[in-house]
Prior knowledge:
By secondary structure, the chain is of the alpha/beta class.
Amino acid sequence: LDESGTGIISDEVKAEVSVNGPAVAGALSAKSDGGLSGQVTLQRLNDASGNPLAVTVNIDGSGSMNSTDPQRLRVDGAKAFVDQLESAGVNYEVAMATYDGETPSLNLSETRMLLDFSNNATALKDSSDLVESSGTTPTYESLAELLIYSEDQRPASNHEKAIVLLSDGAPNSTALRDSVCSDAQRKESPIYSIGLGPASDLAPAMEQDPSAIEEMRSVSRCSGGAYAGIDPDSAAASTDEIYRAMATGTSKGSIVFLVSFDPADLQQHFSPGDRLTGTLSLTVGGQTAGGDFSFTVPDPGASLNYQYTGE
């Protein structure tokens, strides 16, 4: 952000990444022993339109959440999302929703609307307390009808749109995956996904479900959003940070950089499940800011390697 709090969304922003080695602008230099190398490229600019923000927060309410989120961090995170929008001083409305395949509302077949679009921060946060843990995981069915509902209530022609999704596992069915992707693109409503438990790429390797992680990544990648996994070692802080970052990204705009690694380098020097840390530094106008990130080395044999290639 600049001094006025406006997002600096430009291809003039230069990225530098270091992971287990010295940073080189636009690339990762190999370690002295010929180790990890890769490339950093600008993938997408999401410039805020300046229109009022209309975001739907969709929270997994399936029965498995009893064990993967016993502290109900997903609720605390939803409240942090609202708090961040309040503090940002943007013109916003949020709709709170949940899905469990059992208790739909408002003529929806898979989704229970906890609160329709509102800018009443207290009411929004109170509504998030109504999230339960029962039933199944109709993720794509819920997303499909929320895209229709959101467009009917807050058309993209007059609003900056987004959906924020939190889930801990693979959906019941992937039959609607491609149609959700194309509909989100058409309605200019990127889907920002947050992975918890087995759907987090920061969970211990034995607790991860690679297919669940890839589903969450895919729906964000194909719709123009972003994915983030909750760090179980600092789950409360991680959840809060992710929701707040997504609130800033949806309201102020965002830049997505893609860091690509050679799978052979990863396999040669690291094992699946190893957590690597890195630093992303951004420079524009002579000023530099940055932050750390981490990721878990995937099991190459388990990844779905799904890439959306629709219109």
